[in-house]
Amino acid sequence: MSGRLSSILSPAPVSSAGRPILLDEESELRTFEDVAVHRKSDQNQDEILLKGILVLTNFRLIKLVETRPNSIVGWEVQLRHVSSFSNVDAIFVASKRTNLHIKRSDGEAHIQLKFNKGGREEFVTLLDRALARKSWE
Fold first, then answer.
1. Which residues share a beta bridge with 91?
2. Beta-carbon neighbour count of residue 113 at 10 Å?
3. pTM of the entire predicted model
4. Which of 21, 22, 40, 91 stands the most exposed, by the fewest C-beta atoms within 10 Å?
5. Pairing assessment for the beta strands 107-115 and 71-78 based on DSSP bridges
6. Which residues contact 73 (CB under 8 A, 6 or more apart)?
């Protein structure tokens, strides 16, 4: 993974079965198949950072990526660091995306989630509820 992505996402522990290891009082809200994480490169080009499964919990967004056959790694962003989100419904974008604005110690980072097999509307609803509940507090 590039250094730029590791400044946005942190490693997330996964089980030998390739599932996220949940924290105390954390619950899985929904799993979304075939979601890509995008960002703008330094040259303002669309750059795909990760493809795979996205797991939304009441504490975190966890991206599960198969690095080689039968080897899954996890990357996460804690929901407490998500300052806001917005949908992107541009005419020229092949599928709908959701922007995430993530607070960091050096400012704010932005990534986009592209839902290749649908599910964005449900994701946005569940994310909005999870952010409002602040279960991590």
1. none
2. 23
3. 0.87
4. 91
5. unpaired
6. 11, 14, 64, 65, 67
Report pLDDT digits (tens) over 91-108.
555 557 898 989 887 778
Strand order in the sheet with 82-88: 10-12, 71-78, 60-68, 46-57, 28-40, 107-115, 97-104, 82-88
pLDDT value at position 95?
A: 59
Q: Residue 9 is which amino acid?
A: L
DSSP per-residue codes, 45-100: -EEEEEEEEEEEESSEEEEEEEEETTEEEEEEEEGGGEEEEEEE--TT-SS-EEEE
Residue bearing tokens 């949908």: 87
Pairing of the two strands 10-12 and 60-68: unpaired
Let me know if 62 is exposed, middle or buried by CB neighbors in 10 A (0-12, 13-18, 19+).
Answer: buried
Q: Decide: 117 and 34 in contact? Cβ < 8 Å.
A: yes
pLDDT at 1: 45
Residue pair 91/116 in contact by the 8 Å Cβ criterion: no
Distance of CA 129 to the CA centre of its chain: 16
